[in-house]
Design brief:
Layout lengths: L1 H6 L1 H20 L12 H24 L8 H19 L7 H28 L3 H15 L2 H8 L11 H25 L8
Helix pairs in contact: 2-3, 2-8, 3-4, 4-5, 5-6, 5-7, 5-8, 6-8
Length: about 200
């Protein structure tokens, strides 16, 4: 699995940049009186949906493209959930979509990327790269920490009042963690010497 990710490091970097763009859109949306980069709120969601679908496609490609020693199923599942979230925002903006659906997709993404980052941390520990191991373990645990707030929002344990924008900040926080993890992983994988046989 790790060799597949080493070969596809540039796709992970592209995914990370797309995650960062999505996070920026979600962070800016509550601070503006109107939509971002579009004449309407629906247009902004459609743009975010397009970015998410592109990021999902890149993530799936990074997980399976040129996979000789096995693909990364957590990364592929992460990409499928991300593409599904993008499709909802792109094509289903006129239909009522429950916050629970979005929450479940974020939970799937957080768990799969968290599992991947913890597996990467374990590989770094085996190769005696303690600094990288600690970094990816921390990022993996931060990714997993998004699960409980996502569940609370999805089950409406946290009330969304008018103008509170808790949902946008929650989405932004997930995509910030995802961007940091993807870009850091891509940069580290690009230095192939870390993954030569120990």
């Amino acid at each position: 699995m790790i060799q597949t990710l080493v070969r596809n490091w540039w796709l992970l970097a592209l995914c990370g940049l797309l995650h960062a763009a999505i996070a920026a859109m979600y962070l800016v949306m509550p601070a503006t009186d109107g939509p971002v980069l579009s004449p309407s709120w629906v247009g902004t969601l459609v743009l975010v949906g397009k970015l998410a679908m592109a990021a999902g496609a890149c993530t799936i490609a990074a997980a399976i493209w040129r996979a000789r020693n096995g693909s990364s199923w957590p990364l592929a599942l992460n990409g499928l959930a991300l593409a599904a979230l993008g499709f909802i925002q792109f094509a289903l903006t006129r239909f009522p979509v429950s916050i629970l659906v979005v929450s479940v997709l974020i939970i799937v993404m957080a768990v799969t990327i968290g599992v991947l980052e913890l597996r990467i941390a374990r590989d770094f520990r085996r190769r005696h790269h303690a600094g990288d191991a600690w970094f990816f373990a921390l990022v993996g645990l931060l990714s997993l920490s998004v699960v409980l707030p996502s569940l609370a929002l999805g089950l409406r344990w946290i009330r969304l009042g008018p103008g509170s924008h808790v949902d946008l900040l929650w989405l932004a926080s997930y995509f910030v963690f995802a961007a940091i993890g993807m870009i850091a992983l891509a940069v580290r994988l690009h230095r192939r010497d870390a993954f030569l046989p120990a």
